[in-house]
Amino acid sequence: MTGQGSGLPEPILIVGGYGYRNVGDEAILAGLLHRLAGRGLTVVSRSPAETSALHGVRSVPIWRAVSELRHHRSVVIGGGGLFGRHMGQLGRLLPAYGLLARLPSRAVALMGIGVDADQPALGGTLLRLLARRAARIEVRDATSRDVLRSWQVESVLGPDLSSLMPAAPPSVGRHLLALAGVDGTRPVVGLCLTAVDERMGDAVARAVVRCVDRLPDVEFLFVPMSQHPFAHRHNDLEFARSLRGRAPRIRVLEGIHHPAAVLSLFGLLSGAVCMRYHALLFADRAGVPIVPVAYADKCRAWLAEHDETNVEPTVDALTDAIGALSPAVRMAG
After folding, report:
1. Distance (Å, rounded) from C-alpha 136 to C-alpha 36?
2. CA distance 265 to 169
3. Rounded distance, CA 189 to CA 325, Å?
4. Of 35, 159, 251, 266, which is least packed with CB atoms within 10 Å of its CB?
5. Which of 103, 108, 99, 105 has its CA nearest to residue 75?
6. Are 141 and 302 in contact (CB under 8 A)?
7. Residue 43 main-chain phi, psi, to 5 deg
């Protein structure tokens, strides 16, 4: 039997950055599950109980990733910046795991991935070997396709897998706004910020705090796109709380929510200040005006492909860009 939309024999083991409380990665998984839509799908996750509850799929812990190979005919390494310079040590082991999964004759597909040109020496070598042996490679951006071509590897270019995830109804987004204490009578601007780059995070924090003071009639809602459980700089909720301590008018969306619910919330915003990659994708999909503040190559590549201009993280630049988002925000400012 084959997984629908993949041509891969079932059962299929899905491996990626799942269970780390990253909205973008969970949206990728939701889209991938929607596409495969088969029986016999298992997801390797750092938090298997959370993944099962969120997505309604069988999930196993990372330590069982190798033993589970005996029970699956295919492996999908699914989506996102798995092969980027911001991945941790575990992520850098993925190419080696993919090569192991190929033995003896298991199908391995790389689906919806992004690939940075600048790879660690050993990881880059293993990734090249895996790419040449993969049954299928799908990339989410032209830059990744060009990187693979420079390795003499062809791939299929397609949208990010999160695009396959249906949005939750608007009522779900309204519930999240209320949960965060947003009254919605004024324009609401989402803040999807990160301190992964510490120096840039400091600059953004200074600019945002002063920008909030300059726009008293605009509501600001921090939407954490990552709540990494043990990597401090990848936990945007901690960043959100520190900003709220300096600018108490900032509302913060607390809790773990299905990415479809977060996408629904985006559709209710007057605009969004986006550092995170999937914040850019969610805002674009919801038709929400974007103030892009790119922190990574994948974000800059997306902006170039969409003719968007990056905004410098200064108070004047942010205030001007937010004030120009929409008629409602301009009137409030």
Report:
1. 14
2. 9
3. 9
4. 159
5. 108
6. yes
7. -110, 130
Q: What is the mean pLDDT of residues 179-194?
A: 94
Task: Report yes or no: 272 and 193 within 8 Å, Cβ to Cβ.
Answer: no
Domains and CATH numbers, the chain: 12-164 (3.40.50.11720), 170-332 (3.40.50.2000)
| CA separation for the pair 329, 62 (Å, rounded) | 45
Q: Please name the amino acid found at residue 126.
A: L
Mutual orientation of helices 297-305 and 142-150 as an angle, nearest 10°? 110
Tokens 């799929």: give the residue. Answer: 57
From 211, 230, 231, select the one nearest 220 (Cα to Cα): 211
Q: Which amino acid is at 218?
A: V
What is this structure's pTM? 0.92
* Lowest mean per-residue pLDDT among 25-34, 117-126, 129-138, 291-300: 117-126
Residue 192 bridge partners (DSSP): 274
In this structure, what token pair is assigned to residue 15?
């491996």
For the chain, the maximum distance between any two Cα atoms, rounded to a whole number of angstroms, is 64
Alpha-carbon gap, residue 203 to 224, rounded angstroms = 18
Q: Locate 277 and state its tokens.
A: 């990659």
Percentage of residues of the chain with pLDDT beyond 90: 77
Q: How far apart are CA 92 and CA 83, in angstroms?
A: 7
